[in-house]
Amino acid sequence: MKQILCLSSEPWSNRLPCRTQQLISRLRDAQILYFSPAQSRRDRSFREKGRRVRPNVTAYTLPPVPFPISEHNRLLFQMAWNKVGRYIQNTAQSRHFTEPLLWTTSPRHIHLLDRLEYGALVYDCDRDWDNLPPHWEGSLAQAADVVFAASSLLADRLSPCSCNIALLPNGVNLPLFASASRHDPLPGVTAPIFGWCGTIRRSLDLSPVLYAAQARPDWGFLLLGGVEPDNPFLRRLNKLSNVFLPGPRPVTEVPDWLYRCDALVDLLRQDRPYDDVASPRLYEYLATGKPVITMLWPGQVERYPDVVYNAHDPEEFATLCAHALEEDPSFVAQRRRDHAAMAAWSGRTQEVERILTTAGLL
Questions:
Q1: Do residues 119 and 146 make contact, with C-beta atoms less than 8 angstroms apart?
Q2: Which residues partner with 52 through β-bridges?
Q3: For the segment 123-142, what is each residue's pLDDT rounded down to a tens digit?
Q4: Residues 257, 224 contacting (CB under 8 angstroms)
Q5: Is the pTM of this model over 0.90?
Q6: Could you read off the pLDDT of 39-86 as tens digits, one per residue?
Q7: C-alpha dihedral sign at 193, 196, 197, 201
Q8: Cβ(203)–Cβ(230) under 8 Å?
Q9: Backbone angles phi, psi at 302, to 5 degrees
Q10: How far is CA 312 from CA 114, 304, 322, in A?
């Protein structure tokens, strides 16, 4: 059985599984130790035993230490990464891991390569790490035996550093989102509903929703998910009677909310300009077969133009919402589901296994 050390940038979550755990948990014939960062400097969960989150996956939390972005204070910088490296290496040795495959997900992990024993290296890049020094990611990509990139722009950016790059877009838990129960989460609401699902972060640009909700009080807008403070649009949206914010829901209930909507919307984040990574949310929308309206940056290439309405400003967004309501339900619904089926996480993982097996890493 293959042994894998997975260094994730996000904690293991049963409510909102991240890309890394979606892929890792589906790898067959592999024993996996999953390490994620501490949630705060006071997080002491690293002292606890690992959690068996899957039959073949044990999750650990790394000790909380400051990670200076600047390397000017070399002593503090080295001490921090030495502490993390010792924790991972000691855990791996206690589980009898010998020359495992090291799966990395962040440029920060370049500082652990010399502190860990491993047989092969994978770097899975699913975002633009423009907040970190570029040479960190360049060095990590150069050292990796295989690099997976979640979008074409990410692959192009890393191409000078590696000749072993494979395009691996995000995916969808197809069995979960391909159907819904008969439960109506919005009983008594007769207005057409436009739905969005995810964490409402401060950087989420809700201006298209605000514009459309004010222009069309006969439409309803559902914003499903947790709320971070200080989003500049939430105060005005909360005052509108046709905007619904039910808060976070278990992932098993999310399909019921999506299927309750007449159309689904995808929005932009101001902290990720010109991001061409298709989020798992988009594939979840496509799995329902419902009309989808997305916002794009100026000059951005349209995503799935055959099945998605792509808008560039709030006015166009409202116009396309109206067009979506006029769509014949049988028009492209099955084509959307076909796109989602091709993006199933099970299929993405099979591609990972095929590539790593061909490279002799699995």
A1: no
A2: 58
A3: 999 999 988 999 999 999 99
A4: yes
A5: yes
A6: 888 888 888 899 999 999 999 999 987 655 566 778 888 888 999 999
A7: negative
A8: no
A9: -65, 140
A10: 46, 15, 15
Spacing of C-alpha 191 from chain mean position: 31
Residues linked to residue 222 through DSSP beta bridges, in sequence order: 195, 244
Secondary structure E strands in the chain: 2-7, 30-36, 51-54, 57-61, 101-104, 120-125, 146-149, 165-167, 193-197, 220-224, 243-247, 263-266, 292-295, 308-311
Collect all residues with Cβ–Cβ distance below 8 Å to 146 and sequence separation of at least 6: 122, 123, 164, 166, 355, 356, 359, 361
Residue with tokens 């040479």: 135
Residue 3 corresponds to which tokens in the numbers above? Answer: 């042994």
Identity (one letter) of the amino acid at 347?
A: G
Three-point CA angle 125, 129, 130, nearest 5°:
150
Dihedral of CA atoms 64, 17, 220, 301 in degrees, nearest 10, equals 100
Query: Taking a C-beta distance cutoff of 8 angstroms, is the pair 144, 162 a contact?
Result: yes
The closest alpha carbon to 171, from 311, 350, 9, belongs to 350
Strand order of the sheet with strand 193-197? 243-247, 220-224, 193-197, 263-266, 292-295, 308-311
C-beta of residue 284 within 8 angstroms of C-beta of residue 179 = no
Residue 147 near residue 159, CB atoms below 8 Å: no
In the numeric block, the tokens 């060095």 are attached to 139
Residues in the chain: 362
Question: Tokens at residue 130, please?
Answer: 């423009």
